[in-house]
Amino acid sequence: MAIDTMRAHAEDTFADERVWELSVYSLAGRSVESIARQARLPNGQIRVSTVARIRAAGYDVLDRRSDGHCRLPLPAWPTDEDLERLASAFDPAIPNPAPVQRRLG
Prior knowledge:
Blueprint: H1 3-17, E1 21-25, H2 32-39, E2 45-46, H3 51-56, E3 62-63, E4 69-73, H4 80-87, E5 94-95
Antiparallel strand pairs: 1-4, 2-5, 3-4
């Protein structure tokens, strides 16, 4: 995920929920394909990491719901350096193995 995209998502979340965070999916012991099917995202590409790699970069992954949708809290107004450090904890983008087409309306 590009730094600008991460910042836009964090700003959207802050505007809606008054917290600085990103949304991620994490299900322990599940494959990327299984998590992608569960997440039901329309994105053509996804980036993969582990909770351990994200924590090693100085961040955390907090459970939000039992479906694997999790919170990734950020410092107040994340800097480019913050977002670059977080982005480095993820692999390069790969095709989403289970993209879902969103309905309009």
